[in-house]
Amino acid sequence: MKGWSGRILWVDLSKKEYKAVEYPAEWAKQFLGGRGLAARILWEYLPAGADPLGPENLLILAVGPLTGLSLPSSGKMVVAAKSPLTGGYGDGNVGSWASYHMRRAHYDAIVFKGVSDKPVVVYIEDDKVEFRDAEDLWGKDTWETEAKLKEEYGKNVGILEIGPAGENQVLYATVISQEGRSGGRPGMGAVMGSKKLKAVVIKGTKEIVVDDPKKLREQGAKAYVEVVKSKSYPFWMRQGTMMTIDWAQEASVLPTYNFSEGVFDGYKGIDGYRMEEMKIAQRGCPFCNMPCGNVIKDEEGDPSELDYENVAMLGSNIGLDDLAKVGVLNKMADKYGVDTISLGNTIGWAMEASEKGLIKEKIEWGDYERVKELINEIVYKTSDLGKLLAQGTKKACSQVGGCDFAINAKGLEVSAYDCHAAPGMALAYATSPIGAHHKDAWVISWEVATDRFAYSREKAAKVIELQRIRGGLFESFVACRLPWVEVGLNLDHYPKLLKYATGVTYTWDDLYNVADRIYALIRALWIRELGGWSREMDYPPEKWFKQPLTKGPLAGSKLDKEKYGQLLNYYYEIRGWDERGVPKRETLKRLGLDFLIPTLEKIVGLS
Fold it and tell me: Cα(237)–Cα(95) distance, rounded to whole angstroms?
């Protein structure tokens, strides 16, 4: 195989043993890598019904055939497992030198199983694996941990680590790298913590073998040039994703007061222009020439790497209009290793629950000092409220009420776009394969620019088109989608790059089939792990149906539940899934997923 190593490294943390094994070549061609390979591994090797925080769960690091190559923004990897937050499939991607070193160590995936008897760092150098005692690092934040590991192993390594949130199994703890790269929103850091795996250090020294190195370099160079020549590039380099604050305010989709409104009176205090005034540096992932991380000096004088999602969720969504203070909250999340999106969403829910008297604690909108205390309570579980909120909004509201304003889908908190007046984006959130996340189908800009209030078949088709490209292909190549999304890099580079890397010719129809195969497989994983399925799992939060916007140009807007149901029907029809949201037998056969049929037939029956 060229373009793939064809190898999976299995690491048994209980026995302190490891073994590299070859996996079937057809897995690579059918699922590409990254998310696709991770889902295939989980289907094959994860015991059905495994406890997400138990020894049987598998923590998977996966790269793809384009990862780590000389092409735009290829320094990405996927971290996947059964999610402790949702109970279904969970993953996230993180930019890290670990992805590059994985490729050079000749592994397409690294799978951790079992539980270490004490905290451990796993050091992987090519074919050698060492288990290093990590009791001296347990309890340290992610910045300290990475700095100490670089002192020990040198700077030419890739490091993934968890902070106290992962150690204490906060259900939306993430995996961190390079002081601000964060991935695995559905609790991948908690899974890592449950295994007492403090960090993974990877060093690869082999050459990445590709089919046509010369043509790959030439095509990658063309893509790099196209990125910097884009008309959008100069403004992107000034503001990155922070430009979205002003756009979201204008479009009435900026999450405000726990997604009660789409506009925020104090948005100027947290927008991209305010960020530019405070900016001290810029950071990006490996192989990126359009870095998205804008670093400011926060209120405490420390660097804090910002993007739109964390600023909206820890700013407008909790009523905070001071970017320097938002920077502190964001820095705390990165150092503790906790997802900024779920954190801001869960705190917003707690503020509304406090306002409505469902919890005894008083937490006012925009109360910066109280929020800082609350983050510590959540990460260290030092109070009853902290313990409640560490479980996320779905589990929290099931205990105290307030599920009508718990803003999640499938148990994963919605990221930073209010959808009272955006049914297409609501559908994208509700049908995302990990729970509510924008990375799979950021349809909202297209939707706002077209007929934003339509519940049309065209809109459902657009969601699927974007899911195929963003969630199916980029998550499996594995490379960052932002060069295409933000500066308009031509998608036609990617089949060529894939051909030069692997020697395999994929048409766009072939690639869309790969993406559809991955989405159907992940849906099957959900069905198997939950022991059934209901179309209600593909509905957005109740608040968007019940409580209209009261401010801004779209005041009075809310989603229509009956029309949303028809939109969901269109989605299922186009995907070849039945009215419950279960892939049909003929769809599974067409996609080469016959091996799923016996299990799904037994659990839910197939149409």
Answer: 18
Structure token pair of residue 465:
């088109």
Element (H, E) at 297: strand 293-297
- What tokens appear for 119 in the block? 């905290």
Instruction: Give, as one character, the DSSP assignment of residue 138.
Output: T
For the chain, helix, strand, coil in percent to 5 are: 45, 15, 40
Closest CA to 5 of 163, 208, 268: 208
- Per the DSSP assignment, residues forming a β-bridge with 19 are 10
Write out the two tokens for 551.
Answer: 């401010």
Model confidence at 1, in pLDDT bands (50, 70, 90)?
A: confident
- Measured at the CA of 574, the angle between CA 566 and CA 544, to 5 degrees, comes to 35
Two tokens, residue 441: 């189908």
Using DSSP bridges, classify how beta strands 109-113 and 7-12 pair: parallel, antiparallel or unpaired.
parallel
Give the number of other CB atoms < 10 A from CB of residue 17.
12
SS3 state of residue 462: helix
**Residue 589 — very low, low, confident or very high, per pLDDT cuts 50/70/90?**
very high
Strands 279-283 and 293-297: antiparallel
pLDDT confidence of residue 180: 87
Q: pLDDT at position 606, please?
A: 98
- Torsion-angle region of 480 (φ positive above 0: left; ψ -120 to 50: alpha; else: beta): beta
pTM of the model: 0.98
Q: How far is CA 399 from the centre of its chain?
A: 26
By the 10 Å C-beta count (0-12 exposed, 13-18 middle, 19+ buried), 282 is classed as middle
What whole-number distance in Å separates Cα of residue 164 and Cα of residue 172? 12
Q: What angle do CA 420, 422, 427 make, to 5 degrees?
A: 105
C-alpha distance from residue 393 to each of 177, 323, 351, 418, 549 (Å): 26, 25, 12, 17, 21
End-to-end CA distance of the chain: 37
423-431 helix and 561-575 helix, angle to the nearest 10 degrees: 60
Residue (of 413, 389, 385, 400) closest to 317 by Cα position:
413
Neighbours of 606 (CB within 10 A): 18
Per-residue CA distances from 15 to 52, 132, 356 (Å)? 19, 14, 50
In the block, which residue shows the tokens 């304003």? 405
**Cross-strand pairs, 205:** none
Contact in structure between 68 and 106 (CB atoms under 8 Å): no
Considering only CA atoms, which of 234, 236, 232, 264 is closest in space to residue 248? 264
Largest CA distance in the chain: 65
Show the domains of the chain with their CATH numbers.
7-203 (3.60.9.10), 239-418 (1.10.569.10), 428-488+507-603 (1.10.599.10)
How much of the chain, in percent, has pLDDT values that exceed 70? 100
Question: Is-cis flag, bond preceding 443, omega within 30?
Answer: no
- Taking only Cα atoms into account, the Rg of the chain, rounded to an integer number of angstroms, comes to 22
Residues whose CB is less than 8 angstroms from the CB of residue 55 and which lie 6 or more positions away in sequence, other chains included:
14, 113, 114, 115, 195
CA 180, CA 330: separation in Å to the nearest integer?
9
CA distance 340 to 276: 21
Q: What is the pLDDT of residues 356-395, one digit of tens each?
A: 999 999 999 999 999 999 999 999 999 999 999 999 999 9
